[in-house]
Design goal:
This is BEM46 family protein-like protein. The protein is α/β, with parallel strands linked by helices. 38% of the residues lie in helices and 16% in strands. Helix 6 links the parallel strand 5 and strand 6.
């Protein structure tokens, strides 16, 4: 194994360790909610944004964002991208180190509901080093160094802003674009692709450990709240949007030990998918945050991207 591969494995292990705090945070509602229905109703309705978008977890995630240079990446830009409604989104644009092997493919990444883009740089590093893709890591409003506060409407404005940025940027406007979404980022990605699938530059969608809808996820995260799901106004109805995607190939990466999103959610999304090209990749030992270190994870993505109808570099 090369030194670069050793570093990649180490960086990914560090990432999953840091993001392990997310799983502990998501278990808190189960611990505190038992037998307290009235409190639970109030919590679910008035505090659901804090529960769904814990941008402060892990600690200092709103102020400390690891930079690509901390992971051995030298060719990158730190951006602040304005949104149509006046927010500013922090982002990293990362280029492959091997220009001769570079593909005319850009990956637009959307992360899960906690942490920040810096915590996912080890994943982007794999995309640029092993697959020759450039990467735009876009930060949601209210996360990391971005302004604003998160909600479903706002995050979808952010996603469209990131996609439009790639369509307009001179370096990427002729590139094919692959959308990559983890957990909440999968829900963001599904809506974005559903809205833009007729754009021929959007050539693929990769989903990891995402859910059918927030209302259908609540009973798993907060079992006593299973009768209160209509109080959830952050809906994220992926099971409604996904069947409308009929033009874009989709790869489903499912950690079968996921302790946050039941693997049955991913399987059901795969079953209702109407894309002519859909690929199911189970990761037997992967939990919600460790699926990226499972054997075959990046190989599956690389094969998926290689088989897309993309331009070559």
């Amino acid at each position: 194994m090369s030194s670069s591969q050793d570093n990649s494995a180490s960086y990914l292990q560090q990432m999953t360790s840091v993001l392990g705090a997310v799983a502990n945070y998501m278990r808190l509602p189960v611990i505190i909610s038992s037998g307290i229905a009235a409190l639970l109703s109030s919590l679910l309705y008035f505090k659901q944004k804090a529960l769904i978008y814990p941008s402060h977890v892990p600690n200092q995630s709103r102020t400390t964002v690891p930079r690509p240079s901390e992971f051995g990446i030298t060719d990158f830009e730190e951006l602040m991208i304005p949104t149509p409604d006046g927010e500013k989104l922090s982002a990293f644009y990362i280029r492959p180190p091997n220009k001769r092997a570079q593909k005319n493919v850009t990956v637009l990444m959307f992360h899960g509901n906690a942490g920040n883009i810096g915590h996912r740089v080890p994943i982007a590093r794999m995309f640029v080093q092993r697959m020759g893709c450039s990467v735009l890591m876009l930060e949601y409003r209210g996360y990391g160094l971005s302004t604003g506060s998160p909600d479903e409407t706002g995050l979808m404005i952010d996603a469209q802003t990131g996609f439009d940025y790639l369509r307009k940027r001179a370096e990427t406007r002729d590139n094919d674009i692959v959308i990559f979404g983890q957990s909440l980022g999968g829900a963001v990605s599904i809506q974005l692709v559903a809205k833009n699938q007729n754009d021929k530059r959007m050539v693929g969608l990769v989903l990891e450990n995402t859910f059918l809808s927030m209302r259908k996820l609540i009973p798993s995260i907060i079992p006593p709240a299973r009768y209160l799901t209509l109080l959830c106004h952050q809906v994220w109805a992926s099971d409604t949007f996904l069947p409308s995607i009929t033009e874009v190939p989709i790869l489903f990466l499912s950690g079968l030990q996921d302790e946050i999103v039941p693997p049955s959610h991913m399987r059901r999304l795969y079953e209702i998918c109407q894309s002519p090209t859909k690929i199911w990749k189970p990761l037997p030992g992967g939990d919600h945050n460790s699926s990226v270190i499972e054997e075959g994870y990046f190989e599956s993505i690389a094969d998926f991207v290689a088989n897309l109808d993309t331009k070559t570099g």
